[in-house]
Each structure stands twice: as C-alpha cells, then as structure tokens.
Amino acid sequence: MTVLALDIGATKFAAGTVDSNGVVTNVRRIAAPRTGVWDACRELMLTVADGAEVTAVGIGSAGPVDVRTGTTGPINIPEWAHGFELVDAVGKLFPQADIRFAIDGVCLALAEQRWGAARGIPSVLAMTVSSGIGGGIISEGRVVVGRTGNAGHIGHIIVPGNEEPCACGGSGCVEAVASGPSSVRWARRQGWTGDTGVELAAAAQAGDEIAVAALHRAGTALGHAIASAAALLDTHFVVIGGGFAQSGEPLWQPLRETVARHARLAFLRELRVLPSELTDQATIMGAGLLVGG
C-alpha cells in the first residue's frame, strides 16, 4: 500500500510517501508557481509516486478550503484563489486511490498529537506561522472540522491595535500582522533593508532594533490570538509550526509574555505554548494520517 501525502503551502508544495509510523520517504519540494499551478502539482506527485500503485492520498492545504467540494482556495496562490477542485483533479490522476482532504493546520495538529510536541494531549490547537498563518483544532480526541473544513483557521482572528490590510479583504487579521512576509513589509517601512523572514529573524537575533521591533510586534499579535482562541476553545495546549515560528526568542518572548498577560482565567492557568517538534515534515505526516490512521 502506497500512501501519498501532499502539502499545499502558500510558497511551497511538498509530497512524499508516509508509512503507519509517520516515516516520510521520497520527499520532494518545489516552490509554489505563479501560473501552471496544477501542472506543477501533478508532476510533483507523479515524481514521488514513481510508477507505484497509489492506494491512498492525504492532502493538507493552506486555506481557505471547502472539504464538502474538495476545493482549495489559498489567498496567497492567485491562480487558485477563487477555488480549485483539487480532490477531483487528484482523483483523476490516481483513480483507484482513497483520497482525504483537510486544511493544513489539521494535518499539523494530527501529526503533533501522534508524534510531536502534543503527544498524548487530547485537546490541542495547532498553528502554522509562515508565509501565512493557519491552524487546526483537536478537541477531546476529535478533529474539529466546521461547516466547510476551516475550523481552526486562526490567521483571521482580529488582533487589537492593528488595522493592517489583509489579503482576505479585511484588516487587523493576525496573518496581516504576524506572518513572515507581513513582518518583513512592516520592517521595510521602518527602514530595514532585508528581504525575507529568515533574514529578519537573523537580524533580530543580532540586535537590529527594527528587526527586534518587528518580531516583538509579531509575537505580541500571536500572543493575543492564542489567548483569545484558548479561552474560546477551552484548550490548554498550543503547538506552533512553520518557518517563521523558528525565529527564536525575539518572537517567542513577546508571544509568551502576551499569553501570560491575557490568559488569566482559572481554566487557562495550565496553558502551554510550544514549538513544533516535527518542523517542515509535520503537514506531510499529518496528511498521511488522514488516510492511514
């Protein structure tokens, strides 16, 4: 049985095969193209499958998604922003395969609960903090899906004190304030001359004042979102993955301080916020769990 797992991110796609122990093999990654998106995705999966009979495909995608129709519409992939019928397209590529589909934050939550930082925790909020901000919820052992599959899509919680325009059409969303690209844009408006979230994190760790301020702003916004979501969900465990989440103490210190300042209710006293233990493999591992259990 070949279980193929697909990770559709805002800036990169990844695919690999996953076994029942979460071991990922034959991983391939590509930058998310601006045009010909499905063609690139198809070639990626065919390369990973390498002629084997694919019996199951698990798909984790950046949101929004619609699991009722098998459609994904990531706002950071313009060609698909109005919706692409991804499950149908994958089904035509692998007609004998069982195909399961979820928002990428759900895949992160599943993987972290089985093998990562949330092992043995029955209720967890997982977040991805990268080019965008997403999330997924497991409550007392059950995945929370919502009407369309977007439950947990925390990137569009509104954070206080910010009216930054968001690609979703609104303003003040935590994604518009605290994602990697959003933080870079803010820092450049203040005079910083770098280009990427990785560079911004390195500059902050080296003491650059603008970079430190940018990450403090992002961490504070994330802390506000986490404290709000934890109170709403009655969860005491949050795990955060994604490339920008690896920015170190300049991001994590204000995040933790903000959570501590606002999560003051008795049922939140044990709230823990930890980084992912699975890093860039997590979504693929969780996508495998969608079909492999």
From TrEMBL:
<dbReference type="InterPro" id="IPR049874">
    <property type="entry name" value="ROK_cs"/>
</dbReference>
<dbReference type="Pfam" id="PF00480">
    <property type="entry name" value="ROK"/>
</dbReference>
<dbReference type="InterPro" id="IPR000600">
    <property type="entry name" value="ROK"/>
</dbReference>
<protein>
    <submittedName>
        <fullName>ROK family protein</fullName>
    </submittedName>
</protein>
<comment type="similarity">
    <text>Belongs to the ROK (NagC/XylR) family.</text>
</comment>
<dbReference type="InterPro" id="IPR043129">
    <property type="entry name" value="ATPase_NBD"/>
</dbReference>
